[in-house]
Amino acid sequence: MPTVDRLIVRIIRVPFLVPRWAIAQVLLPNTIFVREDIEPTVTLIAHELVHVHQLKRYGLMRYWLRYLTLLISSGYEDHPMEVEARVGESDPVYRRLARRVLEEQHA
Ligand SMILES: [Zn+2]
Question: How far apart are CA 51 and CA 64, in angstroms?
Answer without folding.
Answer: 11
